[in-house]
Design a protein that fits this description.
The chain is built from 19 helices and 12 strands. By secondary structure, the chain is an alpha/beta fold. The protein folds into 2 domains: 332 residues, ABC transporter type 1, transmembrane domain (ABC transporter transmembrane region fold, Up-down Bundle); 242 residues, P-loop containing nucleotide triphosphate hydrolases (Rossmann fold). It is elongated, with a radius of gyration of 36 Å. Bound molecules: adenosine-5'-triphosphate (ATP) and magnesium ion. Adenosine-5'-triphosphate binds next to helix 11.
């Protein structure tokens, strides 16, 4: 196993490189869904062909009428052909929509799955750097813009290219000179679309940002409703929300203005082309250079060109947004866990019975100064206490013992082996951990307790709940152990949450149990019962418990005093009471307080 502290910075390579890199991410999906994409593009070509043929039919019928050929039945036949072609357009359109939009949805789902399973491999240092909001945005907004680029973007691109090429050929077939004349205003349209849609893109990003601001504010305010009430900030919050709403409307209106300009302008340009065609083409038709049917067909083709011209600018923007989002997703997918597994680590046959810390120094990633310095400690079967003022490094030491952060080589030994050489999954399975801030999933109480051992039976779950003195309380909920926790479920008190978190750790029966200040919210009566359960566990396991309260550490075999990231004393209660100033101070303070019958929650 090798450590990998260096996490790739978010590089900003040239666009082409970025596109190539992002495309590498998409390639396997394109291969997987190749039949969908190919079928969709074929159907799209079908639509375009049918559409392109309609003016040809009109031309033939008009020319027929002019020549006086065929009469009623010929006209009827042309009509039928047009209906058949229109039917073809409808059918093919149905298929491309299903195939290509379906493909883009599948792709979106696959990418989301890929992102999620990748996030599952990452660890604490990563989640400390990235906010939840950012990751949520990736999984929603960014994936949506990739989906849009792959769905509508791909369709419009293929459509625009095919249509432009085909329409131009058909027009040139009728008359090349007239085609050039008709096209002369179109580059302006393309340029104008490009300029306006770049503006549109910028405005649109602002609209999206403002919108996520609104969402975030609504989310956090509703979450913190109690605080809003207690500090009577309702009016203030409402005003802030209103201001955000106004900003949002302002930007959204600008988007509407630009969009509103785009369509009339394109209509205008198309009409200028039409004017040119009517003047020049009309004269050609009068001269007999082209037939009247050609003239009418030519005008139909001209209108068919307007959409692809507009689409090009729009598609460019869709792709631009898609590529930007894809690069953001790729950046997360390029992240590697801090513990890079260089092949399988050692899996010892015996369980953990000894942990030794040797001159352990620790600096949090990205921080300048060490939080732990020169820690030497040995842990074997039994209860060990960690005592120290707030900020002294107790939680940090617990994190390292649980291997939530990488540790320097040669500083932590398990059964005599450097922990870095041991299999990470094996080691983590050997450690049960009750963190300082208990975390509960919005799931049933039973599922929360058995999270670390899903195969546990109802009896196992109840017996561990009884051990931490919460069984009675759980039974009082209407659905007992099947009650859901969290929103729309039961609300638990701080002490109840702590005991469920503790029960979850105890249930694993792991050979190492780490409790980081896990009893701080538990009342004095229940505390004795919980301590007894922990002592029982410590008979056959290494139990390390950080606490602010000496009473909780009374049964400990040894207590280590941590101050400012350094060990200032290790030993039994009597030893520390005789030798360690901090221990003495705490002892006298807490003994005094206990005498007055107060509790000392952290
Ligand atoms: N994730 C982190 N990144 C950077 N610094 C951190 C991080 N977590 C803690 N620290 C710093 O490390 C020091 C020790 O923190 P730690 O949480 O280990 O203290 P503690 O002894 O558990 O305190 P408490 O008794 O309040 O729980 C503090 O100065 C804190 O600011
Ligand atoms: Mg702590």
């Amino acid at each position: 196993m090798k450590e990998n502290h260096s996490i790739k910075p978010s590089t900003n390579p040239e666009l082409s490189g970025q596109i190539a890199h992002s495309f590498a991410l998409l390639r396997p999906h394109f291969v997987k869904y190749r039949l969908w994409v190919a079928g969709g593009i074929l159907a799209l070509i079908g639509v375009d062909l049918c559409q392109l043929l309609i003016p040809r039919v009109i031309k033939s019928s008009i020319d027929g009428i002019e020549r006086g050929a065929g009469g009623q039945s010929a006209l009827f036949q042309w009509g039928v052909v047009i209906v058949v072609l229109a039917f073809g357009v409808a059918v093919f359109r149905y298929f491309w929509r299903n195939l290509i939009l379906g493909f883009s949805r599948f792709m979106e789902r696959d990418l989301r799955d890929q992102l999620f399973s990748h996030l599952m491999t990452l660890d604490r240092p990563f989640f400390q750097r990235r906010s939840t909001g950012e990751l949520m945005a990736l999984a929603t907004n960014d994936l949506a813009s990739v989906q849009l680029a792959l769905g509508m973007g791909l369709i419009s691109l293929v459509d625009a290219v095919i249509m432009t090429a085909a329409v131009l050929s058909f027009m040139a077939y009728i008359n090349p000179e007239l085609t050039l004349i008709a096209l002369s205003p179109l580059p302006f349209l393309a340029a104008l679309t490009k300029i306006l849609s770049t503006r549109l893109h910028k405005r649109f990003s602002t609209v999206q940002e403002t919108f996520s601001g609104i969402t975030e504010m609504a989310r956090s305010t509703i979450n913190a409703m109690r605080l809003v009430k207690i500090y009577t900030r309702e009016k203030d919050q409402t005003e802030r929300f209103d201001r955000l709403g106004r900003t949002y409307i302002k930007h959204a209106m600008m988007v509407a203005t630009i969009q509103g300009l785009l369509f009339p302008i394109s209509g205008l340009v198309a009409n200028i082309s039409l004017l040119l065609v009517v003047i020049v083409g009309g004269r050609m038709a009068i001269n007999g250079t082209i037939t009247i049917g050609d003239f009418v067909a030519f005008i139909s083709y001209l209108f068919m060109l307007v959409w692809p011209m507009m689409a090009i600018g729009w598609v460019a923007n869709l792709f631009q947004r898609g590529v930007t989002s894809l690069a953001r997703i790729q950046e997360i997918l390029d992240e590697r866990p801090s513990f890079e597994v260089g092949g399988p680590g050692l899996v010892p046959t015996v369980s953990v019975s000894l942990i030794e810390l040797r001159s352990l120094d620790f600096v949090y990633p990205g921080q300048a100064s060490a939080v732990l310095q020169g820690i030497n400690l040995d842990f074997s079967s039994g209860l060990f206490g960690l005592l120290g003022p707030t900020g002294s490094g107790k939680s940090t030491l617990c994190h390292l013992l649980a291997r939530l952060y990488p540790v320097p080589a040669g500083s932590v030994f398990v059964n005599g082996q450097d922990v870095n050489q041991l299999d990470l999954a094996w080691y983590r399975q050997s450690v049960a951990y009750a963190p300082q801030e208990p975390f509960l999933f919005s799931d049933t109480i039973a599922a929360n307790i058995s999270f670390g051992r899903p195969e546990a039976t109802a009896d196992d779950i109840q017996s561990v709940a009884r051990a931490v003195g919460i069984d009675d309380e759980i039974r009082q909920f209407t659905q007992g152990y099947a009650s859901r926790i969290g929103e729309k479920g039961v609300k638990l008190s701080g002490g109840q949450r702590q005991r469920i978190s503790l029960a979850r750790a105890l249930l694993t029966k792991a050979p190492v149990l780490i409790i980081d200040d896990g009893l701080s919210a538990i009342d004095a009566g229940t505390e004795q019962q919980v301590l007894a359960a922990i002592m029982e566990y410590a008979r056959s396991a290494i139990v390390i418990m950080a606490s602010h309260r000496l009473a909780q550490l009374a049964g400990a075999k040894e207590v280590a005093v941590l101050e400012g990231g350094m060990i200032t004393g290790v030993g039994s209660h009597h030893h520390l009471l005789a030798q360690n100033v901090y221990y003495q101070t705490i002892y006298h303070k807490q003994a005094g307080c206990s005498a007055k019958g107060k509790s000392h929650g952290a």
